[in-house]
Model the fold of this input.
Amino acid sequence: MLEEKYLECCYCGETISFLLDLSVNCQKSIEDCEVCCRPIEFSYTVGIDGLSSFEVFRLD
Done:
């Protein structure tokens, strides 16, 4: 199951979206901002009731 998550880019402040695969218990990935193209690392874990944690990190 995919879930779309919206957040502000930690570099440019624009709202961007990520698609999270909730069929995976935990995942760590790097995606580029759709606006400023800078790399953003994110990780998340999924519990019984859905998304249990979501963290975003700058890569500088």
Remarks:
- The chain has a mean pLDDT of 93.
